[in-house]
Amino acid sequence: MLVQVLMQLAVVVTLMVIVSIGLFVGRYRLRETRTEWRGRIRAAAPITVVLAVVLLFNSVARQIVPDLSWMIGWNLTWAIYDIEGQFILWLQDQATPWLTAYFSFIYIYGYVFLLVFPVVAYFALSNTRPLRELLAAYTLNYTLGLVLYIFVIAYGPRNMMPELVEALLYDTYPQYQHLTRQVNRNTNVFPSLHTSLAATVTFLAYRTRDVYPKWNVVAILLGVSVAISTMYLGIHWAIDVVAGIVLAYVSVELAHLLVGRWSLSDWVDGRVPTIGGLRNRDP
Amino acid sequence: MNRNTTDPVDGVDRRSVLAAGAAGLSLSLSGCIDSVRSVVTGEEDDQLSLSIVTVPRDDNRETVQIARHLESNLQAVGIDADLTVRSRSEFLEMTLIDHDFDLYVGRHPADFDPDFLYEALHSTYADESGWQNPFGLTVREIDRLLEAQRLADPDDRKATIEPLLEEIAVEKPFEPICRPTEYRVASDRFEGWDNSHLATRRGYLGLEPDDDVERLNALVTDARPSRNVNPLSATVRERGTVVDLLYDSLGTLVDDEIRPWLAEGWEWDDETEDDGTAATVTLREDCTFHDGEPVTAADVAFTYAFLEDTSYTSATHPSPAPRYRGHVSAIDEIETDDEDEYTLRISFDAGREVAERALTVPILPEHVWLAELNDRIGDLDDFSAPQGRWGIVTSDAIDPIGSGPYQFESQSERDHLTLERFDDHFTLDEEDDTLDADVHLEPTVDEIRFTVDPGSVSSIERVASGGADLTESMLEAFSLADIPEDDGIERYDDDSWTFYHLGFNTRRMPCGDFRFRQAVAQLIDKEWVIDEVFFDEAHAEPLATPVTDEWTPDHLEWDSEDDDFVTRFLGSDGEPNVTLAHDMFEEIGYRYDEDAGRLRHN
């Protein structure tokens, strides 16, 4: 079941990325990438390693985070549920089969595409700074998000109000529950990492709007759709989404401050002859 | 991640390490939470406030809906009610172990015999943690009636239980709401699904798989078995399907009757000095535990003594197991014979029916549990065994060795628990002529895998698409419409002993007052619950009393025309009649503040 869902996801997202490369990146940048890719990979390698380590740590930590959270016992479901509750109900009142299909697609496929495509798009730029900022911002999202998950136990609307909030995604397409279960626990709703990562991409797309003007528009549309989809599908409360946007903003700002502050490649350049350097000496 | 079976002691049990670290943290945060709460709920005043705890929809869609129904009705009459959701094991920790609740909505596992009420309500257990008396009820008359039904003559027992049930309906330590029908779907790769109840050991035995089938893949929506199968833990399960497969018991339930299982047979002796009874139990010879050690009378005697005190007299205070308390309390004494390893005499403080129920506890291997205990004791001077909480009754690191028809193979957290057939199980002994083919069903399939699945709808889909054979967990009523009309999949319906109920913590005011409990119980519209939550009368029946139909006295059968406090809903169509409710609460000493719309303490 899971394998089937993953295959489908991989195929759809790959197709979307290929089409988008044609639409937004263009042939000229691809040609340039072919000659410059080594240098760009070298520049992005350190932050990629950091991100990989954080993701690995995250998957291990998620095994113990729930236990730790229950012991800390800062359960905020009731508070969130007291404060709002009505908004999600209103949003769900707008449900139509088409909207459900759209938002389900966005929640799964749109979201993964939104995260993957900018990595490709920024890699296609000579200036590696947007790519490094993007990866740094992803890292920060996961790190800060995990800390919040430890402290806050909260169940989403679908878990609290099953008769009012339909779990549209899981009731309509139960197979997706196999996928989301792998990456998320049902007590980890505050903040919405779906929203925060989508908003991160959107914020960065806005920063790079001079380079990718069309992508900026698409990213805003997708980012907003992802945020709405989490609430429409009964997975997150509005507060989680707001917190997700704040987390995204903080992550993007921090990434901007931090990236380029320490340069691993400068440090390496001074000590080890690089492959490029060796080759230049060759003839 | 396979379970590490080479390390029997969880000296560095993950939970306890985390608990130590989190203890300081939670202390420092608790004040903080209170202040958040008072900001949210307004200034402190004397409004009546109650908190209801239950599990989230992912764990049980029905309980959270019932809890919300009650929450909204309590609010409608001016009580500051709030709803807390906890994961299944945290919920049980909170209600059974810590007794940290006002009200809870849950499903009680109950049992085939009404004697489960002894464990649930006897005042002796009011201070203990576990399934024994989580309500903290201490009512002398109920104690007396619980004891009387135990000693009653089998012919008179129903008549003795009647006043008990009436007294419970008046005292209302809990309010039974409804009894669900257990629905499951199964594939046609096996035959015999409808032979026995699929929540019991027998449901998995004697099945006839197709020729090429080597594994039964059963879907569970509860991930706890993939993590911990400790037979004594109160919080890792509600009922004991897996434990029943791993462990044998002396007797087993076959069509409303306890028949010898691990015991070859027993002789009753009703001529005891007291009112009780006694039995001489003969064990099957040549039975072994999964590690090859023989099952003897000493193991049986150990099991009952150990359940009574899991510190095995090493701690200053006895530490009874948080399960099987009622079963074990029916036993007065066990005598073994040094000469004969396979015979023991058990005397009971109870009549036959209750005594037979006591024979259904899992038989534990003495060598495994004593070694485990000794490892934990370490230093006797400094040894304590906090009842219901200490390592031996909570740990996931104790070898799950029983003598049952299936043995532990592997488990992977949140993924699966796999059992494999125990080829030396007595039911597979072809030469044993004491076996009765109808009672001693064999484990037929090589392997049973309990796979964790996210929910009823996806479980049904998985069985329908051939990815699994059975939905072990009861299907939620709303998902029944998703069962396809298909030859390869069929629905099986079983009656249930379990019941949905509202539990009160009688240790805390205002729930300590039985009149208040009666008033709150009248704010649940059971028929509305059936319509809105279960969708059909066939899916659940409203209850006035918690025992099965055969034990229910006529006047405690559900009757929607009844207008007494036992069954009445104070309102209609799920909505409370606020004026009547205010009168009701004012009559028992509360004051309704019209202006603020709040019910206050007087």
Please describe what this structure looks like.
The complex is a heterodimer of chains A (283) and B (602). Chain A is mostly helical and 283 residues long. Chain A has one domain (2-16, 39-263). Chain A has 13 helices and no strands. In chain A, helix 1 crosses helix 4 and helix 4 crosses helix 5. By secondary structure, chain B is α+β, with helices and mostly antiparallel strands. Chain B is 28% helix and 21% strand. In chain B, the strands form 8 sheets. In chain B, strands 2-1-3-20-4-21 form a 6-stranded mixed beta sheet, with helices on both faces. Chain B is globular and about 80 Å long. The interface between A and B is large, with 35 and 40 residues.
> How many separate helices of chain A?
13
Name of the CATH first level of the largest domain in chain B: Alpha Beta
How many domains in all of chain A?
A: 1
DSSP summary, beta strand count of chain B: 25
Q: Kindly report how far apart the N and C termini of chain B lie.
A: 58 Å
The multimeric state of the shown protein is heterodimer
The count of strands of chain A amounts to 0
Global shape of chain A: globular
Q: What is the CATH T-level topology of the largest domain in chain B?
A: Dipeptide-binding Protein, domain 3
Give the key terms.
heterodimer, A: about 280 residues, mainly alpha, 13 helices, globular, B: about 600 residues, Dipeptide-binding Protein, domain 3, D-Maltodextrin-Binding Protein, domain 2, 3 domains, six-stranded mixed β-sheet, 25 strands, about 20% strand
Topology:
The complex is a heterodimer of chains A (283) and B (602).
Chain A: H1 2-72, H2 77-83, H3 86-93, H4 97-123, H5 129-151, H6 157-160, H7 168-172, H8 175-183, H9 193-207, H10 213-232, H11 238-258, H12 264-271, H13 275-281
Chain B: H1 14-41, E1 49-54, H2 61-76, E2 80-85, H3 88-97, E3 103-108, H4 116-121, H5 140-151, H6 157-171, E4 174-180, E5 182-187, E6 190-191, E7 208-209, E8 215-220, H7 241-246, E9 251-254, E10 257-260, E11 263-269, E12 277-283, H8 297-308, H9 325-329, E13 331-337, E14 340-348, H10 352-358, H11 366-377, H12 391-394, E15 406-412, E16 416-421, E17 447-452, H13 456-464, E18 470-471, E19 489-494, E20 499-504, H14 514-521, H15 526-534, E21 540-542, E22 571-572, E23 575-576, H16 578-587, E24 590-593, E25 598-601
Parallel strand pairs in B: 1-2, 1-3, 8-17, 8-18
Antiparallel strand pairs in B: 3-20, 4-20, 4-21, 5-19, 6-7, 9-10, 11-12, 12-14, 13-14, 15-16, 16-17, 22-23, 24-25
Transmembrane segments (chain A): 6-26, 47-65, 99-123, 135-155, 215-235, 241-259
Membrane topology (chain A): Multi-pass membrane protein
Protein name (chain A): PAP2 superfamily protein
